[in-house]
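Hello forum,

I keep getting stuck at the same step: I have a sequence, I want structure tokens, and every attempt I make locally crashes halfway through. Rather than fight my setup again tonight, could one of you with a working pipeline run this one for me? It's a single chain of 620 residues.
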Amino acid sequence: MSLSLKSNTLILFAFILTMVSSAQKATPVFKDGEAQIVEAFKDNSKWLRHDLWVETEFDTDGDGEADRMHVSVTRPEQTETEGLKLPIIYVTSPYFAGVAADAPGTMWNVEHELGDIGEERFHPEVKRRGQRPIISNSHIRKWVPRGYIVVHSSSPGTGFSDGAPTIGGKNESLAPKTVIDWLCGRAKGYTERNGDEEVKAYWSTGKVGMTGTSYNGTLPLAAATTGVKGLEAIIPIAPNTSYYHYYRSNGLVRSPGGYLGEDIDVLYDFVHSGDEDKRAYNNKTVRDTEMINGMDRQTGDLNEFWSSRDYLNQMDKMEAALLMSHGFNDWNVMPEHSYRIYKAAKEKGLPAQIYYHQNGHGGPPPTAMMNRWFTKYLHGIDNGVENEENKAHIVREYDDRQNPTAYKDYPNPDAKDVTLFPYLAGSLGPIQPKSIASDTFTDDVAFSGSDLAKSNTSNNRLMYVTSTLNQDLHISGVAKVSITLASNKPAANLSVWLVSLPWQEGDAVKITDNIITRGWADPKNHESLTDEEDLVPGQFYTVNFELQPDDQIIKAGQQIGFMIFSSDKEYTLHPKAGTELTVQLHKTTLTLPIVGGKKAFNKATNQTANNKKGLGKAKN
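Reply #2:
Ran it on my machine without issues. Output:
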């Protein structure tokens, strides 16, 4: 064989070996616009797990050194053995190292008059748990087999991360930004918390997506508001998007559902699992100075402390595509949190979709929706998700959460505001009353909202109801109330529930059966959320506010009840009973967003334009 022929043969053989080797390399696989589970990525015994610390540009624990964030990485072995680069799904949290126990006295005492602050509460300590190198297994089993690297990190002042928890402060946005910078080669990572041996993310494509639930869903939005390059898409699930909206309501001190007496400093104690030696400094600087000076439990007014912890005010730099997820019956982190951000993202021209289910706190979109979102924005597969005609996916009342109904948008574009008026006889209808009328009730927090809604009559609330619906009525959007009232005291709670009657009881009752939506407000803030004024007893004031967003079909045979009361046992402060409130009915309205507008409402309630036929009393 000639030298030339031998050389050509060797070259051909090498080429064939290269082609065979390339053909055997594991790569992500896509079908119908979704990343598929790849056999070569499935074996978790071959996944590579390691941890590191990413150095930030801030020092929030006062030790004179830049805070470092503890990061955990889980990736397919092919990112090491075959030089495979993959995109990242990133989850960050203050919860990974444990939280404080629910000790007596941890919450603020709510048994006091409005304007008082109550007695000093107990400050629990978190006993840190967890071992290196794994922070959490969350999301790993779902996404690594589909061709992603999953990264977790602990928030500042939690777990093995340096710094102080600030509950919505700037460092909680900048910490995940810095981790993303490291994933994109713009920040430094180290093998040890105090070491100088660097670690690089050579396996990263520089495309990052974030997701998480509750606080873990808040932090993707926090990171996105920094405008960090490389964060392509976020899927926040039940995120808290404003700490004022979480702990206050239209000027009123209000607890999140299920956590009566919680406030921002309580949450600080709950998550403060970081270095025990740094906790005293953090407590003094953050909890006992910044928070106590800014949170203002006496008035509930909006101020700079709260405004700086509202991500709606920080969206100018945001570029990430947004898929929101929330439950319409989430009375912890209420559904307004997602809607306000979704609305703003659309107005900015960002790719945005929203998924709502009918249950409570938490609940991700179907995996297929998340998969398509990440496939498009992280793998760059042109699946058309950003051009889909239907931007809203809503789980109907009796459907499985994996099977939402698609709508063009939320609120439903066919929904139109219908203004309803309360009548002295207890009816509710679309015809404005011509006569002057007032109704009076007395505050007594001993009665819960459900107690009041179930009562045929009560001196402790006002109830106005439509006639019995003869066909289903679809509400979609944000209901609004305008209530003109007077109090016999300088301060009063104001609560509104929109309910479906008759009230259902028993084991078969669904979360959507009774409460449609609700809201709360401080009459002292009738002019401004930033400056309240004492009520002059006997003087009337008009209070305008929105109820929580909803999308619900009220079934035929039900009545819609508009309930006005004062102290809400599950949410507000508990002043002594006896505050008397008088409502001017001719100056009070409920505005409902109804699919089909006034025509649909009139048809469902047998209402005509010239009479009040069909207006009824509650069927309790």
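Residues 106 and 122 are 5 Å apart (CA to CA). If your local run keeps crashing, start a new thread with the error log.
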